[in-house]
Amino acid sequence: VKPGGPGVRSASAKPGSSSGSATAKPAGGEGAPGARAVRVAIVEDNPLVAKFFRLALERAGGFEVEAFQDVAALLDRIAAGEISLLLLDITLPHLRWKGRPLDGVELARLARRHCRAHLPIVVATAHAMMGDRERILEASGADDLMEKPIYDAAELVARLRRLLPMAAVSD
Amino acid sequence: VESFIEEIKQFIGWTASDAELLASLSPRMQRHLPGLAEQLLASVERHPGARRILCSGAADAAVLRQGILSWARSLFGGFYDESYAQLRLECGSQAARAGFEQRYLLAAMANARAYLVDSVAKEIPSCEQAPGIRAVHRILDLDLNLICHGYLEQSLRHLKLLNAELEQSALELAEASLSKDEFVAHVSHELRSPLNAILGFIRLVLDGLCHSQEEEKQVLRDAQQSAQLLLRIVNDLLDLHRVTANKFALKIQAYPLRQLLDATLPLIAVQAAAKDVQIIDETLDTALPQVSTDEVRFRQVLINVLTNAVKFTDHGAVVVRGFPHADENSFCLEVEDTGIGVPAGQRASVFKKFVRAVGDASHAAARDRADEVQRAGAGLGLHIAKRLVELMDGRIGLESGRRGKGSVIWFTVPLAAKAKTQRRASRRKQPAGASA
After folding, report:
1. Cα–Cα separations (whole angstroms), residue B125 to A15, B30, B121, B132
2. Which residues of B touch A45 (CB under 8 A)?
């Protein structure tokens, strides 16, 4: 996924306030100018939901989004320090790790072990019964949990930004 | 029982001379006993509560009269051993089983005691009465103890049984409510994913976050696709409810299987054509029988099985075959796909609620495509198919594909009565015998 993309800059995609060089960037350069874009890895079972997350984050600016279905590839990128935030689903029936299925809870723990620094993890789940939130946060060690449906792009962005170090936040 | 009877005897002050005394009274007592039987029977008949024991009328009154008579005779039999005790225990137990309340039992015993004491007094001169009357009191004490013990034991057994039944039904209720909770959790989970996409895409458009009109359109089409998925899930849930609550009014009739297939396969061919999948109907080469089934539900089963096969096949073919089932009066249809297959360990669970087939790693590469959503569902199609097949007296199962690839889902459908089969079949070009 390339940052920016064609065409019009949307109204709510705020350019970084810290950017003296914003005007020098080509049109559509929404990634935090001067700063590295925040690279978000998405692991989501429903491809259309993944697409919505990607659009919501890209349009907000400052995010580069990549969807993963391959656990090994994701862990490699995490270990290499190339992922700044992980947004993941809990029920992931298609996911395999070392020949066996794994869910978002296990994947979150696995991701933590592959990252030297603290990797912010947000769980986006449709498990919304009483006690699910506490149970999943506790078991996964995730930093935050959002209950689906998550349809407010601004809120999604705000929740993710809260977990990022100040330097990485572009507005 | 032996130690039990000895204990009671000790307790009531029973002596060996009591036994001898009672036995010696026996000849003189015989003429009083029919009167005792009549009096007890009359008192039972007088009480509406007690009368229930005589619910089948004269026959039961005669049996009861005979029972009282032989009981009263054995009081003067002279042998008060284990088998004597056993009979009393059984008598008490029978009274409990018949629902004869304990207060009637106690009243009848008191009644009998008064009658027998009177009778002994009439037979023995008054200066010698005391030991005989004492003996009558003691034998009735013994009987009262034994009969009540039998009565209590039976009541306890009955209560224990009721308790066990209650525990069992409490357990079943708890399980049912647990699975109901799980069900609600599943449904909530299944509905939230498509809702997320629908609400999210609409919000993107409303918030003006799309870059072009073309993108807005695409995003709305994605929302629409998710809404269609949501509709499918809701329909499946309704079907599941109907099949669970047994609310399908099945109309089982004889249908030519050929006609059922011809009416159903074209519907799937449309789905398959949208992908690179071909539907091959191998039953066209064989004669198909008349089957006994519900037309609508049979077609639903076929559609669910075929939809599943097409869903999980990206390229290749879905093959429909049919053959007479080996040892049953039924016909077997099978649907083979060249899709991702199901690992041996998961085959049984494919038919469970909310279980979706799972791809392997090579399949995961295709996951980013939007048409992947078409594969999604609540995981209810095969479960509903299984429930329907079983409602229609058939069986359903899953095996690995014949060439080690993909999988085969087969299900059976009962044959229609033979006469009808042959009559209808003879109208087709195949010989009638081939279809039987």
Report:
1. 127, 18, 7, 11
2. 193
